[in-house]
Structures are given as structure tokens and as C-alpha cells.
TrEMBL record, chain A:
Protein name as it appears in the record: Fe-S cluster assembly ATP-binding protein
GO MF terms, alphabetically ordered: ATP binding; ATP hydrolysis activity
Domain ABC transporter: 2-246
Keyword ATP-binding: yes
Classification via CDD domains: ABC_FeS_Assembly (cd03217)
Species, as recorded: Hansschlegelia beijingensis
Alphabetized UniProt keyword annotations: ATP-binding, Nucleotide-binding
Record-stated family: Belongs to the ABC transporter superfamily. Ycf16 family.
From TrEMBL, chain B:
Species the sequence originates in: Hansschlegelia beijingensis
SUPFAM superfamilies in alphabetical order: Stabilizer of iron transporter SufD
Family according to the record: Belongs to the iron-sulfur cluster assembly SufBD family.
Official protein name in the record: Fe-S cluster assembly protein SufB
Domain of life: Bacteria
Alphabetical list of InterPro entries matching this protein: Fe-S_cluster_assembly_SufBD, SUF_FeS_clus_asmbl_SufB, SUF_FeS_clus_asmbl_SufBD_core, SUF_FeS_clus_asmbl_SufBD_sf, SufBD_N
Amino acid sequence: MLSIKNLHASIEDKQILRGLDLEVKAGEVHAIMGPNGSGKSTLSYVLAGKDDYEVTEGSATLDGQDLFAMEPDERAAAGLFLAFQYPLEIPGVATMTFLKTALNAQRRARGEAELPTPQFMKLVREKADSLSISTEMLKRGLNVGFSGGEKKRNEVLQMALLEPKLCVLDETDSGLDIDALRIVSQGVNALRAQNRSFVVITHYQRLLDHIVPDVVHVMAKGRIVRTGGAELAHELEARGYADYLEEAA
Amino acid sequence: MPAVQETVARVRSIDVDQYKYGFVTEIESDRAEKGLTEDTVRFISAKKEEPEWMLQWRLDAYRRWRTMTEPTWARVDYPPIDYEELYYYSAPKSFVAPKTLDDVDPELLRTYEKLGIPLREQEVLAGVEQRRVAVDAVFDSVSVATTFKAELARAGVIFCPISEAIREHPELVKKYLGSVVPTSDNFFATLNSAVFSDGSFVYIPKGVRCPMELSTYFRINERNTGQFERTLIIADEGSYVSYLEGCTAPMRDENQLHAAVVELVALDDAEIKYSTVQNWYPGDAEGKGGIYNFVTKRGDCRGKNSKISWTQVETGSAITWKYPSCILRGDGSRGEFYSIAISNGRQQVDSGTKMIHLGRNTTSKIISKGISAGRSNNTYRGLVSAHRKATNARNFTNCDSLLIGDKCGAHTVPYLEAKTSTAVFEHEATTSKISEDQKFYCQQRGLSEEEAVALIVNGFVKDVLQQLPMEFAVEAQKLISISLEGSVG
């Protein structure tokens, strides 16, 4: 599904990723943990194609397609979804309008017909209900005045609607209370499927109690320094990242 | 938001310098000699078969104009206009007062078709869900055909070319023409008073709610011909009218001067809603060509509890100089101004409004959304004033600017004058930029960069779009996206 080889990337000439390798197979959930400044968020932005980041070496493919040869919107249409740590606000654009515009843009890019409005509305209603998102919320400006929990639920709603192949969750647990964490995790778990993979970026073990990963990676200084099973997360929780930082240095 | 998608598809299909409405209709014109003299004024007046009083009115304006100088206070920059090098009157030559639409030059009808004007009454009536719109089509200087006249007449509404009103309803024209924008008002208004070619006249009798939206499409079609439209709308006591004005113009190399005057009069308890979508040719990517749009629009809330509301979507013209204003004379009267002004390329916009509170308990509201892209400059200039006797005057102003890119400018110049301590004026203003993060977020969800900008901008202007009548709002939304073409990347 996702294959990253020897990835080097920098921002404003500052090297952040230094030879990162990652293989994620279809249907797998990989967690990436690591201390602040290890390059976790950079990895998510580089995969999604944010402007300020420059790939200096290495490759990344999604089902064999070269991600770095595509514009951000083309990567989205190819099945890459990034759940933002800080979802952006767009005043005056109703959430419902945004969802419809995004879905139809992707469908067009894939050569599919646009979804007729009644079908679209029905689809959104179903998905929104399962995430406890009210109709009123869908009418509000995108993420405008949303609480932290509402924003993250809205990210998961978009994920559910757009049905991506690969979901990258960038610190989705940050700013969530226990209840919100549960709703968001249930939403993500409901999307787990044979043909869909997840890369879950997080600081804490907490999220991984809800979204149980198949593989856990430890990232430090722009590389993966250790890989293990779900138990690795618990080990990290107990011991901290200090050892790995020394190792990487 | 299907309009956005459609727009983007259309934008892609347009070459950079290919203005959508940039076609020229080949019809012979009958026009006045180049330059402006008393003879030009007499020629125009004679062409219109005007009575002597009208000619004198024009001549008075002409003589005054000769003593005036062009204003320079607006934040716009253009080479001096040589008024002796312009033509001041042009009428399509094939025009011989058509009795029915079948007599109208087919070439002209095809032009209307390209513009999408529902000129044929039956076409409009055929659309079951389509709201009825009466169109007084102004093709260059002569109103060619007026539809729906019969039904409007049954309601007692007069909706006709102003040249016809001068002949048929002289008492109304004499009473109201120049009563809101006097012939001495300003350089461009005075010029218009001397040489105005045609425009619309509307009279809504007492207590009548106009049964349909009234609409005029303007189109400049003669090379080097200044357009001097004159519109006069009178809403008598307790009446209501909604008037729509939309403009498109063909591609030009030379700049074209457009100096229109619009006067609105609302008597006791009357309401006038005036909506504009302005899409004159803005010039090419280097700023060559394009319309100079120097317009004087003013409404007089003359009666108590009267209301005048201006809504404008300004996307075209090389230079826009325009301040639709309200004089709140009647006690309890209300003025509103909703504006979207978009500038791209090398366009220059200096636009805003004036709310002059004279009566007691008068209220006004200003919502202005300026969007600058490319290398354009966009200025909001507004005056809110309360006279000594305007007790309890209230104004709310919200003035937002959005910048796209880093080579454009947004400027806000509000003037506030309160001569009564009971006045309450509120002013809110913001300036923001479309952030790279917002664009990236949209793109990550599958929108192209152009679609992302269009979506964000449409969100920014939503409050104003909602004020437009339905059929205009859809058109305006498309226009907004088209006019931002080339603003990204």
C-alpha cells in the first residue's frame, strides 16, 4: 500500500527527515511514536504534499503511484487522507458544502459521476449520526467555532465520506477528552478494512488503547529507530523516549 | 457547490486574454461627431426628439461642466482622458422603432442570446419555476425592446426608456430628474446630465408592490463611445420595487468611459432594492484596455419610514469609481449597502457608500467585502454622517478585505461625522489573507488550488451574496470565480 524509501526532507534548508523507511501493507494499522521534533508531523505533511517542505532524497509510493509526482489534490484523489492535528477554519463555507465539494472533486478526478444531492445528503446523515455530529453542526461554517472534539470528529467524518485507501492521523488525540477520544476512535475503527491502511501518529499510548495497531514504530531524529508490535507502545509509555534519542544521536 | 465546479471548468476553457463577453456585434451605427460642444448636446437632444425644457436642462449642465475639473482624490491612476476625442452618442443604425420582436435586427437578438438575456416574453413565461423578470435591454444607447409592458401597465407601473418617459411623462421627469443628483453634483454626473443617451425610468404608484423584478442589461458596443446611462426610479408612498442591473461589455483596446447616473426616490413607507452585477471588460493582463466606470448612484429616502437598499457585485472595469449612497431624509428611514468588490490583474477599485442621516431615528447598515488579487488595488471609501437633527441615528459598518497574493493592495478609508450626541455608529473592519494552510487543507481534501480559492472567497462574500435575488446570486457566484482566474499559482 504505502512504501517509503530512504526519505529525506527539509523545511527552509533545515533537514528534518533523514533516511526514513516505512512499508505499510493493505489493511494494516501502523503507529508512529516519538518525541517532539522527531519529524512525525513533517512526515505527514511531506506525504500530503505541503508546499513548504522539500523532498531532497528518497521516494514514496501509494499502490505503486509516485506520490511526489502528484499535486496535493491528486494525492487526495489517489486515496491519501490526512487527518490534521489542527483542522483549518473556513468562514462562510458550510461544512455540508465543503464535504460535497470535496467528494465531487475527488469523484471527478477519478472519472466518476458526481453524487446526486439527495444521495449525498443521505450518505452524510448516516456517517454523521455515527459520529454524533448534528445537522446544525453541518450547517455551520467549516470548523468555525467548533470545539477541539468537534473538529476531530469532523475530520473523521470527512475520512468516512471520502473513503481513502491510506489514512494518516496526525496527533488526532491531541486536545481530546476521554469521551471525545472514544467517539473518534470508534469512528476510525469502524473504517478499518482489508483494503484500507492507517498511519497513526501520536505521542501517547492512550490513543493506541482505543485504536490497536498492528505495528508500532519509534521515530527519532527523522528516522525510524525501532519497530515492534503493540506491546512496544506500552514499553515506551513506561520507559520514555530518552534511550532512543541517545541511540539516534 | 456546483457553481464553483462549473466555474472552474469554464475558467479552464478560457484563454488568459479571452474575455468571455468579448465579442463585437457588427451593426452599423449612427453616431454624433467626435468631441463635445453645445452642438453635440443639441444633436443628442434632437435625436431623442426631446422637448425644449429638456434641451435647456442639458445645456445648463453642459455649460457648468465646462467650468469644472476632473476629481483626483480617488485612489486610482489613469492617463488623462481627452474628452474631445470621444464620441458622445451612438445608436444602432438598424433601429427603426420595432413594433414587435420580429422587427428587431436578428443580429441584435443573437447578441442578447449570447448574453443570456431572456428577451422573449414567451421564453420567460415558459419557465415554470423561473421568476418573472422584465427586461429593458439597452443596446448601446437606445432601448430596443421592452417586455412585460402590458402586465406592468395593469399594475400602473411605468417601466420604460428614460427618453420615452421624457416625452410621455414629462411631469414626473421634471419633478424628479436631478432632484437626487443635481446637475451640478460632480464632474462626471454633470457630464452625464449634458449628454446622457438613454437609460431606464421606473415609477411605482402608491401602494403598489411591483409584480416582478425589473431588470436592465447594459452593453457597450461602439468603439470609442462613452456610455452615459441615466436611470430614475421613483417609488411612491407605500410601494415596493426590486431592480436588477447587469453589465457585460465586448473586448476593447482603447479605454472606454462610462459615467452613469442613477437616482432613486423613495416616498413615505416605500422601499427600493437596487442590485447590480457589474462585469465590464477589465482590460488585459497588462492592464491595457478596459472600461473606466465613473458612476454616481444615489438614493433619497425622502419619505418617512422609507427604505433603500443597494447591493452590488463589482468584478469588471479597469477603474471603478462608485459610491452608491443613501440620503436618509425621512424620519425612521433606512439605508443599506451590501457590496462585493473584486479586483484582479491591474484593476483599480475605489468604491464605497455614503449614508447621510438627516431625519430622526434613521438607521443604516454597510457590509462591504473587498477582494484584491494580482497587482490590483482595492479601496473602500465610506462616509457615515449624522446631521444635528438626526437624533438616534444608527449605523453599523462591517468592512472586510481579503488579499490573494502579495502584489495587491487593500485600503479602507472610513469617514464618520456625528453632529448629534445621540448617534451611535459602529465600525468593524478586518483585513485577511487566504492562508497557505487553508488552501492546503482544501487541496488535501481533493480541491484544486483554483477551486480552493473560489470556495474560500465564496465563503468570504456569503453575507452579501445572500442579499441578491436568486437568479443574480447564482450568476454572481460564477462571476466571482471567473474574475479570480489566474490569481493563484
